[in-house]
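Course assignment 3, question 2. Fill in each field.
Student: A.L.
Task: Predict the tertiary structure for the chain below.
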Amino acid sequence: MSQFTNRWDKRNNQSFTNKVRESVRSPGPLKPRLDLATRQIQVQVAKLDATVAKLRERDAQIFNKIVASIQKHDSQHASVYANELAEIRKMNKMVTQAKLALEQITLRLNTITELGDIVVTLTPAMSVIRSVRQGLMGVLPEAEGEIGEISSLLSSILVDAGQVGGYSLNFEAANEDAEKVLAEAAAVAEQRMKEKFPDIPSGLPSVEGTTEASS
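Answer field:
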């Protein structure tokens, strides 16, 4: 690991030919930009995690209002709260999925050891970042802009890595890999929602149904 770090920290005292040859073996000056991108993604993960926590609190509050309304046989308000809860859970699932996907990208960036790894890793990562950005546009507008900056940074790194190493980009394989990351994140998000949140009571006038759902 120390040898690898030293390769990344080499100065520009080599000839152009040697620098290109060295770049083929290691990311070289691309490392600081990769580190920056990783830190920025981690910041977004932390923000999304905080958003999930707030949505979880809101979820509990509204669920309690549904229960209280049903106990009062106030099906009208119970239905309104149930619709609101459904929207919050949809938002929660979307944010959780985005967070999980970004965590996967961070893990992959941390495994990069050679120039070729940058191309193989960043090509699908770009697709994932774009999907996450698009998904959060209507939920967290401020995150959409920040993730856009991360996307631009990763794109510039990918272009430079491809030019220096002479690598061609396999977008078909990258898109397939990106779809797997997003599908896995969606599946995990769905499972977490089922585990952490009680079902929305069905048959709103029924107090018994509420008891079962909240147990």
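Instructor remarks: Residues 1-27, 205-215 have pLDDT under 50 and may be disordered. The chain is about 80% helix and 0% strand.
Grade: pending
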